[in-house]
């Protein structure tokens, strides 16, 4: 089993690339959902496998901590896009080699497998493209198949994109996906990252939404809802210094905008009051996805609370709609 120290050592902020000092604008952070068993293979005994991966590719890689009773962990790889793609290719090849019980592939030289990438809901349009042309081009060029989930993961704004094929085909697809994410990184800012586990466990894993540990392209992290207490807002009457203000943009599906605004604007007014952030809403969709852009301006703490309240409202509305659909099905 991998040691705890190895896991902690590999979960810190990524180092600068060894080949010079590329700006953070060139770095890609790509997360994937893996089983606890696979996470152990990725880390290796005393962290050997992940250390070898760093040496071969120059990336920073690590997995989230073990949570009792939870059988999934998050793999995070940060580096230049080509290095991240190479690292995932090596990881997938290693997982295939470590699973002798898996079905015998039709071609031993190119076994068929898959990886579940975690992609911000706001960036899905970038990967899919207009009329699905981008995702088709990636699939045709790489030979891999990509399946995007329709729903966001619990208490997050991330969705799963499963990439299927040989390790080499998946690596090729990941490189193209990474390029798409880097080109449109600003839409991913403010993403609520997914944490496997119970609501209580996610609540204990909260981090700052404006830390950006991997540079400009690292998404913020805000988890939890329901019984969890939201972050505290600045004291009433305390005006933050302009230098401490942050601006974040998030995209909201058009059919969800009404539930956030509320009757006569009551909901959005309450979110502004409780968080202390200024929140403006675009009057029209910003692209062909039909989503509306919300711009949040405030201190890191205020923005964190605003994001919490916004996504809490979205989750409540999603649950209400699901319940209504189930009720209609029962009546039918």
Provide a descriptive summary of the structure in words.
- By secondary structure, this protein is α+β, with helices and mostly antiparallel strands.
- It is 39% helix and 18% strand.
- It contains 11 helices and 9 strands.
- It has helices spanning 4-9, 36-43, 48-57, 81-97, 124-128, 133-142, 167-183, 199-204, 254-261, 266-275, 300-331; strands at 27-35, 60-63, 72-80, 113-120, 145-148, 158-165, 246-252, 278-281, 292-298.
- Strand 2 and strand 3 (72-80) form a beta hairpin.
- Helix 3 packs antiparallel against helix 4, helix 4 packs antiparallel against helix 7 (167-183) and helix 6 runs antiparallel to helix 7 (167-183).
- The longest helix has 32 residues, at 300-331.
- 40% of the residues are buried.
């Amino acid at each position: 089993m991998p040691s705890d120290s190895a896991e902690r050592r590999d979960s810190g902020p990524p180092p600068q690339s060894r080949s010079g000092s590329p700006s953070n604008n060139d770095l890609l952070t790509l997360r994937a959902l893996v089983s606890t068993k696979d996470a152990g293979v990725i880390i290796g005994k005393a962290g050997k496998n992940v250390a070898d991966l760093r040496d071969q590719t120059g990336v920073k890689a690590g997995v989230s901590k073990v949570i009792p009773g939870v059988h999934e962990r998050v793999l995070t790889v940060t580096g230049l896009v080509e290095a991240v793609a190479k690292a995932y290719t090596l990881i997938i090849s290693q997982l295939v080699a470590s699973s002798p019980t898996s079905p015998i592939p039709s071609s031993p030289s190119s076994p068929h497998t898959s990886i579940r990438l975690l992609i911000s809901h706001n960036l899905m349009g970038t990967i899919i493209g207009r009329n699905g042309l981008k995702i088709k081009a990636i699939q045709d060029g790489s030979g891999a198949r990509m399946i995007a989930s329709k729903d966001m993961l619990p208490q997050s704004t991330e969705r799963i994109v499963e990439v299927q094929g040989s390790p080499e085909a998946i690596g090729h697809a990941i490189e193209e996906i990474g390029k798409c994410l880097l080109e449109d990184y600003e839409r991913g800012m403010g993403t609520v990252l997914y944490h496997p586990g119970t609501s209580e466990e996610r609540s204990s894993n909260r981090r700052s939404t404006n830390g950006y540990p991997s540079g400009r392209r690292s998404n913020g992290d805000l988890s939890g809802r329901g019984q969890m207490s939201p972050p505290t807002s600045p004291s009433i009457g305390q005006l933050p210094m302009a230098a401490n203000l942050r601006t974040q943009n998030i995209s909201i599906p058009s059919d969800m905008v009404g539930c956030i605004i509320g009757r006569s604007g009551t909901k959005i007014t309450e979110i502004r009051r409780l968080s202390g952030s200024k929140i403006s809403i675009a009057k029209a969709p910003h692209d062909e996805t039909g989503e509306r852009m919300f711009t949040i301006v405030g201190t890191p703490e205020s923005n964190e609370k605003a994001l919490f309240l916004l996504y809490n409202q979205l989750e409540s509305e999603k649950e209400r709609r699901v319940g209504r659909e189930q009720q209609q099905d029962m009546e039918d």
